[in-house]
Specification:
By secondary structure, the protein is mainly alpha-helical. The protein contains 21 helices and no strands. The longest helix has 38 residues. The chain starts with 10 loop residues before the first helix and ends with a helix.
Length: 490
């Protein structure tokens, strides 16, 4: 069944199914990332991680440019045709090849900027990833429109297993940072193959760029926003790469990796479902407010305990998982976790604006955030890395208020409603972590301390939610039970 065949009566069930598989996908991906990351972090040094980390922003920017926002635009089209997918496919392929050529020629300049000659050849290899990724943008939009999260989950997990296994084998055999670069390439290869396998879609040579022209007014704003968001998310890596040694960049890269793995577990779960669901109910503002509020509650329900919990176990996780050579990344991780709890909430707001076709609002809010962020971070550069990361985290938290103001103007979602939807989960999560921290202070064995803190914090949070009869928890339990019941009946 395609997305146009999903009627409103089945939307709630489709949303629940989509969230379920998106959560399994995100959870499985982050678990595999964790396992693979532990192996690689033990085999490689902070300096080797820092080398590849310096290239991250260029790869991500190239990804943004070659997609050009058309993936999002395809999801928003009401009555989509093959020509829409085909037009976007050939445009993306052409853009990716042009951008690869430009970056290939710029490789010596990139190496000179970071004072790392090895980046010339490494960057030219790593940049192949976005050329490969461009081949899968149209079929990915098809999977998202049809809420085929199960198929996306299987593809992503397989890609991680294949690329991660090869990377570990290469690291064991002394390939240093080349193992991390190869992992990126292989991951994209498997992802693209999986998308074509599940959609059975094929591009044709009858190319008509009319759909691209029609989508452009919407897409270029999404493109600008995606580019600026990438700059925002990676500006510290670039600044650190210019001002500090590769080892310092590696420590921040490692901290940011753990923070990203945790908050993306929630962000990716919501992002895969939010836009296609909200797009289907744009004509009913009252219903959209209810759905939007519920998505915020679900996101807060998962994000606050996950990120605050990671903050209190960060020392044990880093030391036990990847060793004392990464000890300087611990305080950076704890700071990032606090702001990381709010990042998944941004995903819900952003998808609200995209579902309404308000890519201009999305763009200007992001531009303003980056400008404020850059000023705050650079103002603290003389105080060192930690102060710069604190400034970055504070702006990430406070800027959510700007998104809320425009959400009110768009659909009438009030500030009081936001507080009612978010504060209970934040306060309960903070209280559970504080009690857990105090109760476990006397435990000296790190293994026992890690397990005790995870189990106690989770138990306190869930029990409190159960006692308060939180509707989100009850609905999650009901859905899991219904899945088990259907499985047994089959």
């Amino acid at each position: 069944m395609n997305s146009e065949g999903i009627d409103n009566q089945n939307l709630k069930e489709k949303t629940a199914q989509g969230l379920f598989w998106a959560f399994l996908s995100s959870g499985g991906i982050q678990l595999l990332n964790l396992i693979i990351g532990i192996f690689l972090a033990r085999l490689l040094s902070p300096g080797e991680y820092g080398i590849v980390g310096m290239l991250a922003i260029f790869t991500l920017l190239a990804n943004n440019l070659q997609e050009s926002g058309f993936g999002v635009a395809l999801v928003n089209i009401k009555n989509i045709k093959h020509n829409d997918y085909n037009s976007v496919f050939w445009f993306n392929v052409g853009m990716s090849l042009l951008l690869y050529l430009i970056l290939f020629l710029c490789a010596p300049l990139i190496a000179a900027f970071f004072h790392q000659p090895c980046l010339v050849y490494l960057s030219r290899f790593v940049f192949l990833a976005f050329v490969i990724a461009s081949l899968g943008i149209s079929p990915n939009a098809m999977l998202v429109r049809e809420l085929k999260m199960k198929e996306k989950a299987i593809t992503s997990l397989l890609a991680l297993v294949v690329s991660g296994t090869v990377a570990v084998i290469m690291a064991l055999n002394g390939f240093s940072y080349w193992s991390l670069a190869t992992q990126q390439i292989l991951y994209n290869v498997v992802i693209v193959i999986g998308r074509y396998y599940y959609t059975r879609w094929c591009p044709t040579f009858n190319v008509d760029f009319t759909p691209v022209k029609q989508m452009f007014s919407f897409s270029y704003k999404v493109l600008v926003t995606a580019v600026l968001t990438t700059i925002n998310n990676n500006m510290l890596t670039v600044i650190f790469g210019r001002l500090f040694p590769a080892q310092a960049v590696g420590n921040f890269t490692q901290a940011n990796k753990w923070n990203t793995m945790a908050n993306q577990l929630v962000s990716n779960t919501v992002a895969q479902v939010a836009q296609p669901v909200l797009t289907r109910i744009t004509d009913d503002q009252e219903r959209q407010r209810r759905v939007f509020g519920k998505m915020l509650r679900f996101t807060a329900f998962l994000a606050f305990p996950a990120m605050f919990g990671l903050a209190i176990v960060a020392p044990q996780v880093i030391l036990l998982a990847i060793g004392e050579k990464w000890i300087d990344s611990i305080p950076l991780l704890q700071i990032l976790c606090i702001s990381g709890a709010f990042i998944p909430l941004y995903t819900v707001y952003q998808n609200l604006f995209l579902s309404q076709g308000k890519s201009d609002t999305y763009m200007w809010l992001t531009i303003s955030q980056i400008a404020v962020m850059l000023i705050a971070v650079l103002a603290c550069h003389k105080l060192g890395i930690t102060a710069m990361v604190i400034a970055f985290a504070c702006i990430n938290i406070l800027w959510l208020l700007a998104w809320q103001l425009f959400a009110y103007r768009l659909i009438g979602y009030r500030f009081v409603s936001m507080l009612r939807d978010l504060l209970p989960f934040m306060v309960i999560a903070l209280a559970a972590m504080a009690v857990t921290y105090l109760v476990t202070l006397s435990i000296s064995n790190m293994y026992f301390l890690l397990v005790a803190r995870i189990l106690l914090a989770a138990a306190l949070y869930v029990i409190t939610m159960k006692l308060l009869r939180a509707r989100i928890l009850e609905e999650c339990i009901e859905f899991i039970r219904s899945k088990k019941s259907k499985h047994h009946q089959q």
